[in-house]
Design goal:
The chain is mainly alpha-helical. The chain is built from ten helices and no strands. The longest helix has 29 residues. The protein is elongated and about 65 Å long. The N and C termini lie far apart (82 Å). 27% of the residues are buried.
């Protein structure tokens, strides 16, 4: 009599409780261990909510300085066109537009970065990863940058200017925050670089790539967004 055939299926791995919340902290001190667990159980909602809250808090705190910068640009534009300052929109409208729509626009960055990583990683580098895995990596990595921005907010408020940067832009003493060269050099900042490193670690684990290949993919995804922003400002700013 033949022995009954045994099933080849294995029970699904037990999901770690509160992994989404734990990742908010662990991404800062043990990203590799975090992304190993997120590879099989990617989290989206929790990091996206935290990313939104951090960005919202930053923009809310510095909203008056954002309004001042935008009003200055609009006054110069109106003066060049020979128009009246009566044509300027109310400052309250500019402020709340920045507070409401600013975070929503910035929340698109992880989506775009994940899509770029999917293209370069799956098509160009012939790796295999799912969009949800890549988006999870991008969202947790963005928390590093968002928290860095929030940390700088009190310094900006104390100085009365958004020209506070831990980047190469700090050498430009006489430039404005919206100047193209200032924007370009600000991309070489501590929190930008930290974010790219974390993304590289995450992508190398999700794809099973070498760490250097993961860093390359990080620059081709999230880094590409920053580089494009700087180039556009240099070309048209």
């Amino acid at each position: 009599m033949e022995a009954p055939e045994q099933s080849q299926s294995t029970p699904e791995a037990k999901k770690e409780s509160n992994l989404g919340l734990k990742g908010i902290v662990e991404v800062f001190y043990q990203p590799a261990k975090l992304f190993v667990r997120l590879k099989d159980d990617p989290k989206i909602l929790v990091p996206w909510i935290f990313f939104f809250l951090l960005i919202f808090s930053f923009i809310y705190l510095v909203s008056d300085m954002i309004v001042e910068m935008q009003m200055e640009v609009m006054r110069e534009t109106i003066a060049d066109q020979g128009l009246s300052t009566a044509d300027l929109p109310p400052e309250a409208m500019i402020k709340w537009s920045a507070i409401i729509f600013g975070p929503l626009v910035l929340m698109l960055a992880p989506l775009i970065a994940a899509a770029l990583a999917l293209f370069f990683g799956n098509v160009v580098m012939e790796g295999r990863a799912k969009f949800k895995q890549l988006l999870s990596v991008m969202l947790y990595s963005e928390i590093v940058f968002a928290l860095g921005s929030l940390i700088l907010a009190p310094l900006m408020l104390a100085k009365g200017s958004m020209k506070v940067s831990i980047s190469l832009a700090a050498i430009l003493q006489d430039s404005q925050v919206q100047d193209p060269l200032y924007i370009a050099l600000s991309k070489f900042g501590a929190f930008y670089i930290w974010e790219i490193i974390v993304i590289g670690i995450g992508l190398s684990i999700v794809y099973g790539f070498s760490r250097n290949k993961g860093y390359t993919l990080a620059v081709l995804s999230m880094g590409m967004i920053s580089i494009t922003h700087a180039l556009v400002q240099l070309a048209f700013g």
